[in-house]
Amino acid sequence: MAQTEYSSDPQPTPQGKRLRVARIGKPHGVRGETTVELFTDDPGKRLAPGAVLIREPGKHSQDRTTAQLTVASQRWNKKICMLTFDEIRDRDAAEALRGSTLHVQIVEEGESEGWYSHELEGLTCLGADGREYGVVAELITGPAQDLLVIKTPEGEEAMVPFVEEIVPEVDTESGTITLTPPEGLL
Description:
Radius of gyration: 19 Å
CATH superfamily of the largest domain: RimM
Largest sheet: 6 strands, antiparallel, barrel
CATH class of the largest domain: Mainly Beta
Low-confidence stretches: 1-15
Oligomer: single chain
Distance between the termini: 27 Å
Number of domains: 2
């Protein structure tokens, strides 16, 4: 992943982009605590107490405003991340946020050693011989390796390990990714 600096500015700037880190789930208890579905590889840092997040309402969120939320506490209930926010004090306020997505403002410094999903989505995957395999739909980060989800020209989804042997080149300027898949992968 890229060296990243976090900003509390709620509007995207030329130097930075928003990175989706979580989605607010159901409230837990009566004091405004919520469950969250994680989209980050580092919730301990990105969702730590004091972190300022940008909340964008979901389709079914009762509160339709975009706003900042400051993490007051983070805890784990088994494998579920639970957050409280300085601005949310009761269950009703937490319920109004249900379905909202949480983002951090990122400012990239220098060259990146990795990729974020939003940087790869929509890139065309080509073989070394020019064959088109499809378009990147998503990057799934995993504990052992990352996977590219590719939407094939036939409309199917294929998962490709995002390793140098299979994905030797990513060219965001030309909008392409070169693939050298082993026989039978695609």
